[in-house]
Hints:
The chain has 453 residues and is of the alpha/beta class. The protein has helices at 52-59, 66-72, 76-80, 101-112, 137-156, 178-190, 211-215, 219-227, 294-297, 324-327, 365-383, 391-396, 445-452, and strands at residues 8-10, 63-64, 89-95, 120-123, 161-167, 196-199, 203-204, 230-234, 257-258, 266-272, 286-287, 309-315, 330-333, 336-339, 345-350, 358-363, 403-404, 413-416, 422-425, 442-443.
Amino acid sequence: MRFVRSFALIGALACLAIPAASARHASRTDDNGTVRPSGLHRVFVGRSVPTTADCEQAFKIACYAPAQIQTAYDMAPLYAANLDGTGATIAIVDAFGSPTIKRDLEQFDGSFGVPAPPGFQIITPAGPIPPFDKHDGTMRGWAGETTLDVEWAHAMAPGANILLVETPIPETKGVEGFPEIVKAENYVIDNGLADVISQSFGATEPTFPNAAALTDLRSAVQNAEVRGVTMLASSGDAGSSGPSDAHGAYYPIPTVGWPASDPLVTAVGGTHLQLGADGNRTAPDEVWNESFNKTIAGPKPSPIAGGGGVSMFFDRPNFQDGVASTTGIRRGIPDISLSAAVDGGVLIYESTPGQKSGFYVAGGTSEASPLFSGVVAIAVQKAGHALGFLNPTLYGLTAGSGIVDVTIGDNHVAFVGKKGRRVTVPGYQAVTGFDLASGLGTVDGALLVNALA
């Protein structure tokens, strides 16, 4: 699988619905002229801020603003107690970054009444970034990813510092791009620049030539464990499957991606939030799975769901011994899950050259990881120190400590394979307790911050 940026954007342009996928290859153009680099599906939704009702009426999908997501995750009691991430730093790692991210964040903040971050720094420790090419679909894709990551980590923890770590080579398959990512992350960790690192990218485990190739890339996650930095990663957007090496193809068997599958990383999966205008839930959270939603996937099914399953490389870590009946002898993911659905996506503002400036609806587990990084940053503030490796703590929490079970939905997917044959990849069902579709569940921010701190 090669989910790379766990990122999906959707909206409507002449009532166009675009399926989300997560493998990133060369851009391609539909018959209607819409450029669709795999792994990035965006359509402009307006120059002014739409409401949830506006999105539902015009685009047949729900969209949410920061106040709604903050309410959904019970963040208000934290903000009322002056807990907003002050003193903590969230590092966001993205290839290329975005040439307009600083002004886009200013526009985002102004549109939604979010205070500016106390500090926003961009560094390039793995080498200079190539000049932005508005005709390069991969660069535009990473710009969109950067926009989502920065704006929504900040929206959850408005008092935290944001450190955008840009790398010069995109992660596209197997080890490609990862040496630069690892170098950049080690720089951040060695210099004590961040408390939590959010990674909205990954490569399907079978795309690595062997276990040694992956092991050689683990220095940053191992370094983070030693130095007390929390590592997060999106679990992927292709459900129980994942993009393969072949252009536009998916694995017909269950698989997961790295770095989410790494035992030293907290894997963040996806849920489907259904909220009213006030941010309160109108239905219980479900596992994110829009593979069979024709508005999102199109007339034929396409893998569009939260990644989850068991690793082919990593044995079950000690912290998962209590859920061995579910994971077996292997590392299971995700560990935790937050909002990722496209129908119920978040609003972002972007003005990257080569596309219209304005608001887009974003989804995917690339949303979930930065959302959770904000919760972690606030817990760091409350604790007065970095929290480091989270997984043993998360799996040791008792009922009422901020983890909310998700018991509805599954992440099985289907797609049209060779010769037009439909391929169904069995997935995992959400059940009471830990499962391979939602992990431990989703979060109540106020309770979880107190438990972690």
